[in-house]
Design a protein that fits this description.
Helix content: over 70%
Shape: elongated
GO molecular function, one term: pectinesterase inhibitor activity
Protein name: Pectinesterase inhibitor domain-containing protein
Order of helices and strands: HHHHHHH
CATH class of the largest domain: Mainly Alpha
Radius of gyration: 23 Å
Distance between the termini: 53 Å
CATH superfamily of the largest domain: Invertase/pectin methylesterase inhibitor family protein
Number of strands: 0
Structural class: mainly alpha
Family: Belongs to the PMEI family.
Keywords: Disulfide bond, Signal
Length: about 190
């Protein structure tokens, strides 16, 4: 019985002495991800996109942006990208069913495929976000850009809504990619 008590006491002392070191190893990563986003960080992020003003407007349109950290901002941007891509896909489907022009029909069909792929990439990005796999999040959002560019390449002025929707969707996937790069680099 005497041997159990001293070994328990020494184990407890060792554990207590190691706790500060354990918290020091964990805390920096957690604190970097939980720092509230400031307007300077938003400006830095948006300056790396193709349209700074539209980026700021898009991110600030979501009320969560004011009180979130970089990790939360990634979720905001993923949600915005998903909503816009889904809206675009719905409009494409509607136009596809209404057009009698064979060229427009082909364009809408190709764009519908592109947006199906883009939405799949956004959903995958969201899955990667949830497990904090920031490199895969960045890769998925970059792939989303490629899918949207594919639709941009086949779009003509005969499709009045699609160029604007493509630009909006492209910007939002670009925002996700930019934030993912910052998260992967450990910057906030």
């Amino acid at each position: 019985m005497k041997q159990i008590v001293p070994s328990f006491c020494s184990s407890s002392s060792l554990l207590i002495s190691l706790l500060p070191a354990i918290f020091l190893c964990i805390s920096p990563t957690q604190s970097r991800l939980s720092v509230k986003i400031g307007s300077d960080v938003l400006s830095q992020i948006c300056a790396q996109t193709e349209d700074t003003d539209s980026c700021l407007k898009a991110l600030q349109s979501d009320p969560r942006t004011d009180s979130t950290d970089l990790y939360g901002l990634a979720q905001v941007s993923i949600n915005l990208a998903n909503a816009t891509a889904t809206e675009t896909k719905t409009k494409i489907k509607s136009q596809l069913g209404q057009t009698t022009d064979p060229n427009l029909h082909d364009q809408y069909s190709q764009c519908l495929d592109s947006y199906d792929n883009a939405i799949g990439k956004i959903n995958y990005a969201n899955d990667r976000w949830s497990i904090k796999d920031f490199l895969a999040l960045e890769a998925a959002s970059s792939d989303c850009l490629i899918d949207i560019d594919t639709c941009k390449d086949v779009t003509t002025p005969a499709s009045p809504f699609l160029p604007e929707q493509n630009n909006k969707s492209h910007l939002l996937c670009n925002i996700v990619s930019t934030i993912a790069k910052r998260l992967a680099a450990g910057n906030n």
